[in-house]
Amino acid sequence: MSNFWNMGSRRLCGGTYRRIFSFGAMEVTDCHSERLLNFGSMRMENCQVEKASSRGALHCHSTTFQRLHSIGCLQTTGVCQCEELRLSGSGQFAFLDCESIVLTAGSRQERAVVEGNISAKTALILLPIEIHDGFDAHTWITGAPVSFHTVACESFYGMSSICADEVNAEQVYLLAYPDTQISMITGTSITVSPHAPKDSSDMIPRIDVARNLRRFQPSQTGLIHVGTIEGDTLLLSHTQAKSVQGQDVQIGELCIIDQVIYSHSVRISPKAIVHEVVQL
């Protein structure tokens, strides 16, 4: 296999390459490359790339990546796949299927700009973002302020302030950031704590260099504000809510709850305020 260099405007059609380097405008079709570096403007169609880094504009159609780090503008059409995507710029996707996606800050970027349809197993958010309806993940991990209407997933780890209508997940873990406001939380296991989980490296995509949720520990905790919390097992602290309902409910310190409804067991800290307790 050979290397291919582009310093101007080139078109590459077919072939297998060890590395493709482009510093200008380039079109690549029906190619396979172990490594790709783009510092200009590149259009790709029906390609397979093992490891790619793009610091310019990259437009992909029906292309597959094993690992991609995009710092500039990334746009996809057709169905594209990527095992590991680290996005430090903007992204516009017709449909992207990926194992893990990490949204992180670029050199001058203050908010993530992501549009289109994304399906991921794990999404790690390290840059403020408004999550739209077409962005789906099995596991969400937020490390920067996020806002959304509704998220339904298997696991949701809110390690940042959150503004949302509803969080619906089998497992919910929220850090007690005082700016968090959620209308409704539903799930099987729901935890609100001032401390991040200790054992978390297996939840973080391996393309993120700091695979530990404890780095999101807030310097100052407060009360999160929730309308309704419904689940099977509830372990709450630092929570202000109108209604809490579950099978096994534990209300920890610094909670202010209007009504607690339980069906099996309830424990209430002397440092919590609960106005009404109802057993079903």
Main beta sheet: strand number and arrangement? Answer: 8 strands, parallel, barrel
Helix and strand element order: EEEEEEEEEEEEEEEEEEEE
Write down the oligomeric state.
single chain
Q: Which percent band covers the strand fraction?
A: over 45%
Bin the helical content: under 10%
**Overall strand count:** 20
Flag low-confidence runs: none
Molecular shape: elongated
What's the pLDDT, averaged over the residues? 91
Layout of secondary structure:
Elements: E1 2-6, E2 9-22, E3 25-38, E4 41-45, E5 48-54, E6 57-61, E7 64-70, E8 73-77, E9 80-87, E10 90-103, E11 113-125, E12 129-130, E13 135-142, E14 146-158, E15 162-175, E16 181-193, E17 224-236, E18 239-251, E19 256-268, E20 273-279
Parallel strand pairs: 1-2, 2-3, 3-4, 3-5, 4-6, 5-7, 6-8, 7-9, 8-10, 9-10, 10-11, 11-13, 12-14, 13-14, 14-15, 15-16, 16-17, 17-18, 18-19, 19-20
Written overview of the protein:
The chain has 280 residues and is an all-beta fold. Helices cover 0% and strands 69% of the residues. It has no helices and 20 strands. The protein has strands spanning 2-6, 9-22, 25-38, 41-45, 48-54, 57-61, 64-70, 73-77, 80-87, 90-103, 113-125, 129-130, 135-142, 146-158, 162-175, 181-193, 224-236, 239-251, 256-268, 273-279. An 8-stranded parallel β-barrel has the order 3-4-6-8-10-9-7-5. It is elongated. The termini are far apart. The mean pLDDT is 91.
Give short descriptive properties of this protein:
280 residues, mainly beta, 8-stranded parallel beta barrel, 20 strands, 0% helix, 69% strand
